[in-house]
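ESCALATION

Customer reports they have been waiting on this structure for their group meeting. Please prioritize. Original submission:
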Amino acid sequence: MKQERLNDAAIALCRILQAAGVKHGIFGGYGIGALGGPRESKDVDCIASITNAEVIAIVNFKNAFVYVNHGRDDYASFLWSDRPSRERASPGKSFRELGSRSAIRDARSPNLDPAGNRKVRAAALRDKYHDSADIRWLEGNYRPLLIERRDVVNLDYAGLAMKRYPELEFVFNRIGIDVQAAKARVAAVYLSGLPPPQNGDFQQGLHG
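Update from on-call: job pushed to the front of the queue and completed.
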């Protein structure tokens, strides 16, 4: 039932954005799950080529969405419910934006940002094992597309991701990333010395 409500919320959001002519794409755990991956999510992550103020103006009070102000400037959150009482509202609807009008490069497949670059960036910078699992699942199901886009993967992030999750070396080899060059670029970097991720880091990763 929870997944069905997330599906309804995602469809409602996409309809609003499409009607407004806004380029957008779904990503994150929900995006992986929608493609058939072994992931569950409590919210729907969406990125679009408009600003926070614009998305609030477009989405708030449309198709049962209500804006929730968390005081963040890197994303806007909404609750969605198809019931007038707002009963069982789906929490954490995040509409993430880049703070600019940079267009999404390709939204043919949710979460398939340039060669999975967001996931590579996430795997490099944080300890969440599902990032590695998502990359392996994407490679297993979308290898030709990832091979096509391998040149846009940041080698620093690929090297750090392999330090954190050694099993990714086999994935990167199969899609044609220069694994040895990636390793060499971060040979002197210690994961424990990396700064913690900042607000907006992973959304920015959608654009390399």
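Sent to customer with the following note: Confidence is low (pLDDT under 50) at residues 91-115.
Escalation resolved.
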